[in-house]
Design a protein that fits this description.
This protein is mainly α and 87 residues long. It has four helices and no strands. The relative contact order is 0.12.
Length: 87
């Protein structure tokens, strides 16, 4: 239970930073059901090129086939909707 000595006023941004600092659930490879490694994510972000033909080695379709995931997963990685903890 919270006590007054344990509480403080914080802005919305500060509250978000506190939540991110206290993440207790596993992320990325640690999660257990992940098909990718952090190295794979860095590779995808480095080699992806938008507006490429599907047979191009830099397209989302090619990268998805290479790593065994759906092409929408590639876009989620590129847009940092997933794997956002990897820089």
């Amino acid at each position: 239970m919270s006590s007054p000595s344990n509480c403080k006023w914080a802005t919305w941004e500060e509250q978000g930073q506190n939540r991110r600092a206290r993440i207790r659930s596993p992320q990325g490879e640690e999660q257990g059901q992940s098909k990718l490694t952090e190295e794979d994510v860095r590779y995808i972000r480095a080699y992806f090129r938008p507006n490429k033909k599907p047979e191009s080695p830099h397209s989302a379709f090619f990268l998805a086939a290479k790593f065994g995931i759906h092409w929408s997963g590639i876009y989620r990685i590129i847009r940092r909707k997933s794997w956002r903890h990897i820089l």
